[in-house]
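re: that chain from earlier
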Amino acid sequence: MRLVLLALILVAVSLAVFQFAQTKETKKIASFSSPEEFREYFGRSSGYYPDFSRTIPSFSIPAQMSDQEIAVVEKGAERFSQTNVQVLGIDEPDIVKTDGKNIYISRYQKVPYFAGKILPPYPYEQKTAVVKAFPPSELRKILELNASGEILVYGSTVVILEGNRLKAFSTDDFAEKYTVDLNGSIVAARLHEGKIYIVVSQYSEVCPIVPLSVNGVGWAVDCSSIYHPVKPVPVEVLYTVIKLDATSGRIEGSISFVGNYASVVYVSKEAIYVSYYSQADYSEIMLKFACENRDLFPEWFLEKLQKLVSYDLSDQAKRVEIWDLIRKLTLNMRPEERIVFENEFSNRYGKFAEFHSREIEKTEIWKISPEMKIVASGEVPGRLLNQFSMDEYGGYLRVATTVGNANDLYILDPDLRIVGSIRGFGETERIYAVRFIAERGYIVTFRQTDPFFVIDLSDPENPKMAGELKIPGYSSYLHPLGGSLILGIGMEGSNVKLSLFDVSDPRNPVEVDKYLLKESWSEVMGNHRAFLADEKHEIFFIPAGAGYVFSYRDGLKLIKATETGFRAVFINDYLYVVGSKIVVFDENSWEKVAELEI
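^ sequence. v structure.
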């Protein structure tokens, strides 16, 4: 029984260590020189690694402000919404899109009907509905596209991102234009000035790799175009960033790199930033812990551990050897001795990890030029929450991290050197939401209350904590509503909470209004693209079981609720709420003017 308890302690320690990055300075980056080097690197670096802190890689592009872009077309609608994105003018894929004439709805399942029979074990037929939306008097479904997934629209091209495939259709006759097949999965995509940037993940122990093919023609990536840290670190996947012409499907370039499932990819107009949460060298961490706690370990244990660190073995193999060493260490202990050892080991390691958190827990960042060259590399302590944790402004990269039991903010120069920081705010809490807007940062941390921090970023080398507000609950998404208002969407108790913050005085942020929905969850809390705001009419839409439309003019007021609704778009002054049916409201009177079952 005692051995079982010790094993559990070792597992807990290894789980904690496996979140930590290397303790040494930033790793140098190189490309593979040959298939043999590639295979050897993966043989030493790959293996099983804990998955408890995994986040989906995100892909974002920075800007000063973030809101729906209002598009103008030559004929028909004067304005229409685009998907709620982090950056104005950079589109993100979503399940509902509009081009000002039609609405494309990909959350759509056509279930075959078999009268009096049990449905066969086949997946539902997945389609994308094309609905003529403007004017509302002509609301009708035109047809269905033979693809389903997240959508991007550019000019006369609709691109649908399925799990391992892209299909492009013409909006003129809805004929298929091109198909991109992936030897992996789409983890992120963005559309900017007619170019689609796709991040593909795959696993391979041989190179060249072929991450995708366009209309049956493969795109090969040589070993020399795949990058890695010089010192092997645990890796789980290969990522390839591909630049694709949205209209023709032509590939215009790519770059590949090793990483893990905690990667965040961020693209500006000047560079691509690739970050990953590097796992630690288990033997090095354990050696450092043992050296700082020599009274726990005999000399023979330290000697064997020092030798093990120098061996050319995978991290997985070293971990097994260390477990065996500790098993031998405790094998001849009396029961009471083993209890004391286990307790001391567990308690001291917890303090060790907390004390060394910024030294051993890091996020590595690579900076890649549009010509697909690595131009800088750097690192920051801690781990990122999501795509909103990074933002580029004025040539500087701002990064918010949770590290140990506190939170930090770092500012990096164009060479990715840290030039400014704020460390240790929100102690005993972790980051739940981040938003960078021009020369300010807004960060929410949470444990029992919701500290809402306002940070002055006007001097990159001397960021300052400007103000703080503590209120019940938390926000997991922050959205600027123009002027000096920030909307927070999160939870208070078991209810979805909307908080309206006035940040006109950064030293004294105020929650000027709040609204508790009788709902236990909203998709916006984990997916900002489900949110819609219309600044002209000072309203926003949020899905939360039902579809809710709020006014933020003079506080928060619920003005419409629909029985269903997972997305909304606006065209001119009409709001289209999309659920099991489309319901159209006149935004001037809020009367229902049209409805369509889909």
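The chain has seven helices and 43 strands.
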